[in-house]
Amino acid sequence: MNIPVICASSYALSLLQKTASFQVHSVYRKTINLSGGSSLLSLQAFGSPVSPLSLITCLSLPEMEMLKAAPGIPVQNRPYGLAFSASGEEYIFTLLGTQTVDSFLRSGLPDHAVPLIRKALSSAETTGFRILFPELEANPAPPGQFLINEAAQHLLDQCTALIRQGNWEMAACFLSRLTGLGIGLTPSGDDFLCGALAGLILADMTGHPFFTALKQEVRKHLNQTNDISRAFLSCALLGQFSQAVCSLSSARSAGEILSSFQAIGHSSGTDTLCGIYYIFTSFSKEPTV
After folding, report:
1. DSSP code, position 127
2. Most CB contacts within 10 A, which of 89, 137, 224, 262?
3. What does the pLDDT read at residue 112?
4. Up-side HSE of residue 199: CA atoms within 13 Å toward CB?
5. Where would I find the H helices in the chain?
């Protein structure tokens, strides 16, 4: 069965060039995650949001769910694409004519973008870490979320206070403790950290000591979360992000921002956007270095 991969992130395609073979890591409805050494890639259904790990196929969600993939199945990286066999059926994901989506985030965010981000978050239907920002008028947290939010609020308060003091290393230390905090495929704390790293890039702060310190601290904590979330954090450390993040600087409305970020997971997109918002509000009066 030949299955065209219609688009893929530039980062995912670069990993294919460097990795000889893969195996099925896990299967989640519309996604088949592949592992190759310490790297992950994701075969996804048509219409899925493009992440730095994405290989978007032509298959619909029901068609993707019908594939008989299972963890541990070896996947061959052939010159024309990826192939694996399951229950007597061979699946070949062809890469001929695949559209490349640039996943490398570049600096620069228009002045009008932050009010649009705030408006988008204020209109979001999901809760997650949005409830940590009272000005966003978030809905009450669902049952069981209180202790997570309390822990996250403490870490953010400590980080914010240390940023105001110019204690970049300790501020980064507290913020990085969000790693693995939360539930789900990618915990809210990890999504928030990805957003914070993206926010620093968008704010043209890659030369700032806080950016350097935060990257160092996040690397130290990578083993404190699950494989998939660790893969996204590793991508963020390399400046690789979802299409929603990479397109943020060209967004024209809060509705456009909200639509693209809410398409990512249950609350993953809005938690990432909260991380970006946190950086721009925390450093609003801090000159770049």
Report:
1. -
2. 262
3. 87
4. 25
5. 10-18, 61-66, 113-122, 146-165, 168-176, 188-202, 209-220, 227-237, 243-246, 254-262, 268-282
Banded model confidence at residue 138, pLDDT cuts 50, 70, 90: low
- 287, pLDDT greater than 60: no
pTM of the model: 0.93
Residue 4, Cβ density class (10 Å: 0-12 exposed, 13-18 middle, ≥19 buried):
middle
pLDDT at 10: 98
Question: What number is the average pLDDT over the span 198-214?
Answer: 97
Instruction: Answer whether 240's CB lies under 8 Å from 103's CB.
Output: yes
The residue among 208, 207, 177 whose CA lies nearest residue 193 is 177
DSSP annotation of 20 reads S
Asked if 199 and 236 touch (Cβ cutoff 8 Å), the reply is no
Q: In whole angstroms, give the CA distance from residue 117 to residue 255.
A: 9
Give the HSE-up count for residue 204: Cα atoms under 13 Å, Cβ half-sphere: 10
* Residue 216, number of CB atoms within 10 A of its CB: 14
203 vs 182: CA distance, rounded Å: 27
3-state SS of 47-116 is: CCCCCCCEEEECCCHHHHHHCCCCCCCEEEEECCEEEEEECCEEEEEECCCCEEECCECCCCCCCCHHHH
Q: Summarize the confidence of residues 89-110 as an average pLDDT.
A: 94
C-alpha 104/C-alpha 50 separation (Å) is 12
**How would residue 38 be classed by pLDDT, with cut points 50, 70 and 90?**
confident
Furthest-apart CA pair in the chain: how many Å?
Answer: 63
Give residue for tokens 């030949």. 2
As a whole number, mean pLDDT of residues 182-211 equals 94
